[in-house]
């Protein structure tokens, strides 16, 4: 018996800055998890991951991360992914300094 597919988002790190980014439905990379394309089909998820892997001049280390539909878009399911949405943890810079906390980053 096969397991039910868990919805996913494609995530990676931006090559130049190292920022965590998420693939959107219009093939852009966003700093915001809630703007990511929520993928609920395993075959489509693999196609999107292949697309992300071809973006070698933009991102590094793309992978599929479990997500769920939230009130404002996709939300992370696991602690690690929730932690990655907040940016660097050593002091306020990057996402933590640039965007208000109420944006969900």
List keywords for this structure.
single chain, 105 residues, alpha+beta, five-stranded antiparallel beta sheet, 3 helices, DUF2849, DUF2849 domain-containing protein
Structural class: alpha+beta
Number of strands: 5
- Shape field: globular
Rg over CA atoms, rounded to whole Å, is: 14 Å
- Beta-strand portion reads 25-35%
Mean pLDDT: 88
Task: Name the helicity range.
Answer: 10-25%
What's the main sheet like? Answer: 5 strands, antiparallel
Order of helices and strands: EEEHEEHH
Spatial separation of the terminal alpha carbons: 37 Å
Strand order of the largest sheet: 3-2-1-4-5
Number of domains: 1
- Number of helical runs? 3
Given as residue ranges, the uncertain stretches (5+ residues, pLDDT < 50) are none
Written description of the protein model:
With 105 residues, this protein is an alpha+beta fold. The chain has one domain. 21% of the residues lie in helices and 28% in strands. The chain has helices at 42-53, 79-84, 95-98, and strands at residues 8-14, 20-23, 29-30, 59-70, 73-76. Strands 3-2-1-4-5 form a 5-stranded antiparallel beta sheet. Strand 4 (59-70) and strand 5 form a beta hairpin.
